[in-house]
Design a protein that fits this description.
about 130 residues, 3-stranded mixed beta sheet, alpha+beta, 3 strands, Aminopeptidase, globular
Length: about 130
C-alpha cells in the first residue's frame, strides 16, 4: 500500500515568497486555511516511511493533485489550477508568472531541474527520503 498526502505541507520556499501579493501575515493565514493539517499524524507509525508520498511544498506553491493543463483542470477557472493564482476567498494570490517561471515550477514539481535537466524529486518525495519541512 502507498499513501499519498498531498496537502499537509506549509512550506513555501524563500525564493517563491517574493511572487506573492499578500503580506506575510495574510500569506500565513492563507497557508493555515489551505493546509490539511495533521493528516500525516493519522498514519504515522501505521505505514513505513517508504509507503508514504507527500508534497514537500504547500499547495499554494504548486498543487500536485491538479492537472497541469488548465484546460483539463476545473479548478483553474477559480484561479486554483496546478499553480494557484487566487486565495481561498478569490483575492489575487501572486503576481502573474512568466511562462518560464511557470515552467520552472512545473519542472520542480515533476522532479526536473530547470537549469540542468537533472531528474530529482525535491517537492514530491517518499517521506523516508527527506525531512518534513
Amino acid at each position: 500500500m502507498i499513501l499519498h498526502i498531498p496537502h499537509d505541507s506549509t512550506y513555501i520556499p524563500e525564493e517563491e515568497r517574493g511572487r506573492y501579493l499578500l503580506t506575510y501575515a495574510e500569506l500565513s493565514e492563507e497557508v493555515r486555511r489551505m493546509t490539511d493539517h495533521h493528516t500525516y499524524a493519522l498514519v504515522e507509525g501505521a505505514l513505513s516511511p517508504e509507503q508514504i508520498i507527500r508534497a514537500g511544498v504547500s499547495r499554494l506553491v504548486v498543487d500536485v493533485e491538479r492537472f497541469v493543463d488548465d484546460d483539463w483542470e476545473p479548478m483553474s477557472k477559480a484561479g486554483m489550477g496546478v499553480i494557484y493564482e487566487k486565495t481561498s476567498n478569490g483575492r489575487p494570490l501572486r503576481r502573474e508568472l512568466t511562462k518560464q517561471e511557470r515552467q520552472n515550477l512545473l519542472n520542480e514539481m515533476n522532479g526536473t531541474s530547470p537549469t540542468t535537466g537533472d531528474s530529482r524529486m525535491p517537492w514530491i518525495a517518499h517521506l523516508g527520503d527527506q525531512e518534513r519541512p
